[in-house]
Amino acid sequence: MIESIAIANVATYGSTPETMSGLLQFNYLFGSNATGKTTISP
């Protein structure tokens, strides 16, 4: 199971890594269109 993720330099993400931690088995991501939600989906 993925417990954390860091992403940078892809799609709408800049060079500073964006980190999500404390992830559970089921997570819900929401945001405006074209903000990178699909980029981090498995």
Order of strands across the main sheet: 1-2
Mean pLDDT: 85
Distance between the termini: 12 Å
Number of helices: 0
Assign a percent range to the helix content: under 10%
* Largest beta-sheet characterization: 2 strands, antiparallel
The helix/strand series, from N terminus to C terminus, equals: EE
As residue ranges, the low-confidence spans are none
Helix/strand structural class: mainly beta
Percent range for β-strand residues: 15-25%
Let me know the number of strands. 2
Global morphology:
globular
The tally of domains stands at: 1
- Using only CA atoms, what is the Rg? 11 Å
Give the secondary structure arrangement, pairings included.
Layout: E1 4-7, E2 18-21
Antiparallel strand pairs: 1-2
Describe this structure in words.
- The structure is a single chain.
- 0% of the residues lie in helices and 19% in strands.
- It is mostly beta strands.
- It has strands spanning 4-7, 18-21.
- It is globular, with a radius of gyration of 11 Å.
- The protein has one domain.
- The model has no long low-confidence stretch (mean pLDDT 85).
- The relative contact order is 0.33.
